[in-house]
Amino acid sequence: MRRTYLGEFEEVVLLMVAILDGEAYGVTVSQALEEHTGRLVTFGTVHNTLIRLEEKGFVSSELGGATADRGGRRKRLFKVTALGSRALQDIQELRNQLWQLVPPNALKVSGL
Amino acid sequence: MNRDVAEPPRWAHWLLTRLHPSETLEEVEGDLDELYAYWHRRAGKKTATWQYVRNVLSVLPPFVRRRSHEEEYYQQLSPLHPIMIRNYLKIAFRNLLKHKIFSLVNVMGLVVGITACLMILEYVSFELNFDQFHQDVNRIYRVTNDRFQKGKLIQHGTITYPTIGKTMAKDYPEVEDYTTIVGTGRVKLRRDKSLYPEENSLYVDEHFLTFFTFPLVVGDPKTALKAPNSLVLTESNAQRIFGAQPKDYASLLGQSLYIDLDTEPFRITGIVKDVPAASHLQFGALVSYETLVRTWGSWVKDSWEGSDMWHYLKLKPGQSGAPVDATALEQKFPAFSERYFKGDKVSGSVEKFYLQPLRKAHLYSDYEYEIGVVNNGKAVWTMLIIAVFILIIAWVNYINLATARSLERAKEVGVRKVAGASSGQLIGQFLSESVLLNAVAFVLALLLTLALQPVLNQLIGKPLSLAVLAGQGYGGSLMTLALVGIFAVGIFLSGFYPAFALSAFQAIQVLKGSFKRSAKGVWVRKSLVVFQYTASVVLIIGTFIVFRQIEFMRKENLGFNMEQMLVVSGPDLTRWDSTAIDRINSFKTEAKRLAGVKAATASVNLLGNRLPRTFNVKRVGSNEEKGVTVSRMGVDLDFFDAYKIKMLAGRNFLTTDSNPNGNKVVNAVINLSTVRLLGLKDAVSAVGQKFTLFGREWEIVGVVSDFHQQSLRHPIEPIVFLPFYANGGFYSFKVISNDLEKTIDQIQEKFQTFFPGNEFSYSFMDERFDQQYRDDQVFGKITTFFSFLAVLIASLGLFGLSSYTIAQRAKEIGVRKVLGASVTSIVALLSKDFLKLVVVAIVIASPIAWYAVRQWLDDFAYKIDVSWWIFAIAGVLAVGIALLTVSFQSIKAALMNPVKTLRSE
């Protein structure tokens, strides 16, 4: 049983959606990415990733929140779905387990 | 403020709106605008513009990912998706069941049309397939022979001189093989004491079995018919006569049978497979040609004068598969005639020879003395055209009825469209309805064809079956494919028009209630109705003419009386001897003594049959170099009285005119046509004149009036009556009796005492004579049937159109009624439109019908006039039927309460 694969960038974007908690849409996700990770990516990359995440069922979206500075155009607001949050937690847990397995000195040596 | 008015570059924005997928355009446009404002705030216009352009590019194809449709709740399935098809069929079924009467009418029209079409196609395929089973059918030709006297065609026949085939094969290297046939017709095969009548026997030469494809089950095709008195039987005759099973056939070889009066036995040398029904040559027994040399004389091998032979030639195939060039060979025939016939020096006529392809022998033969089964090719093609027409009419009807309901379906279409149906799905919906309906109709039509097959076969006397269409008929399995293709295309085409017409409705118009069909659609339907009625009127007129012609022929005074005339076949198994005439006369006298018998006469031939001809008959004393051609008939002295043929001058035959020795008979009676043909002034002056026939002189002792010796298809012929008797001839008894059966029994008793060992078979002259009209009567029945079909289907069509139009005018009718219009005036108003169509149809149909019936009547020597009132009656009938059909709807509409139609406004 293979779980749906979540790529590294996808994981980060999904985390941004989670962080933004209901306020996530193209602009805010791009800005949060820049702010929290320092990564500058094109809007298209974010746009495509959000669509892909939705196709995989990790986020859901709906149109809403039209404001004047967007010329009255609606935003597509994203929310993490139950499946998305499960996926994030699974990754987190897996990472923790893996960290436990790392011998105490191993990383320190390399750190030196 | 500067910030607020900051706008991204127009061209980039334009590019975005043009190329970005429409599903996500709104949100992306908004997002990018917001981002532009953000960049502008942070880094100024230049960077913002640069960033904007870069990011626009990143969301254009091919980089952008397309958001799929709102899958969960707004999925547009392809019209061909299995789910949709299942849905179409379900809805179609519900629709059919919901409108039971309408569906029934519609299916019925199709079933009737397809059944008729299938039956006709069976017939046409069967007829076209004649003789195709011969391996070399395309290389086989029959020699035909026209004879001219004084430049006038006197015989157009398939029979010719015995030497022709042989000589042509010898003279022309193009001829690969030939075969010569003599048809003897009915014979009686005798085994021990039992008689087995066989209707078709042929004398054929030794080439016959290898020339044609009539495979032998046992025996050697090369040698079977070489020796005299060789006999080849068909399988069914072997079974009938010997009770033989296929495994016993070999043991039949060498067994003996007797034929008719022949005292020499015939040896069986082969068993041939039964002749296919689709063969113009039909036989139950083949006898070797050499036998004829013994029974008829050596002229059957070398005569250039006597002619009773059919010749078939097989030409050599052309170079590397090129078609055989028969025309080139035909062009050499005038020289052939000159070489052997030297003008008219040899046979008395100028001889012309032609080659008729074997594949045309059945359908395109208009020859006299035809050996085989012939049919009228024109009639077959006409039938094919009728079949196509009926099918088209049936489909047209479907279109008409389907679109007629469009008003009702329009609402359905509107609602479906509002609910999001694409026009592809709607077309799929209506198409599957038509396919379903057509498929049901097709299956029913197949079943109906199977059920009616025996009736049809009996009616037309042919062994037809669906197998003829399924690969065993003309064109083989290609035909089947073509038919399936035609039906499939027809079904789809008939479904397409309604499907497109219905799915093109505008949802808004329909649901607002302001919906009216375009004038164009009505025009299409009107022309369809005109077309249907034109076909109907043509067929009605045709039927009238056919029946009037048949009636005319049967009622016309034939010039002789055949009422209550019982015909008994002569004793063909009694030998001719010097006492034969006395015995025949005693039998007649004895029979005449019976209470119910008024008159008795013996004749060699029978009226209604084709009489034999004699060429080169000359009046003694005329200076004409060449003679004329007359028919002849052997009759006794009671013949003219019994048949009430008027004696115009001279006397009847006397007992002394006859003689057992035919060479001593010298007196003849002729009819009026012969008087004129011989160049004599009138009946009275003809008596006592002489003419030459059979190489000796005859005296005319009497002249009788002309009469129709055959059906009215044929002209009256010049006939010479000779006082001959024959054992194989016929006896005619005028029977006036209350107890017919008893009288016949008594005659039979007398017959058996005078001619022991012979079969007694009788018939009635008028029925026999009527047999000549059998084909015409069948044709009459068929046209009646098709007229009925055409009218039925056309009425269905009109019914559909009227119900449609009247439903549309319901409100108008309501208003008229409110304003005081009477029921009669409304019915008249509604019917007028349809009557116009029918009148147009009559106008179109009349000249077509006139032309067609003239063509048909041309085959008759005596025919009715095509008078205008027949057209008038057909017209009135068509109008009547149309009125009846329309009135059903129009009266209903006129009687309707106007409140019902107007209250919804």
TrEMBL record, chain A:
Gene3D superfamilies: Winged helix-like DNA-binding domain superfamily/Winged helix DNA-binding domain. Residues 19-89 form the Transcription regulator PadR N-terminal domain. Coiled coil: none annotated. SUPFAM superfamilies: Winged helix' DNA-binding domain. It comes from the Bacteria. This is PadR family transcriptional regulator. It holds the Pfam family PadR. InterPro entries: Tscrpt_reg_PadR_N, WH-like_DNA-bd_sf, WH_DNA-bd_sf. The lineage of its organism: Bacteria, Pseudomonadati, Bacteroidota, Cytophagia, Cytophagales.
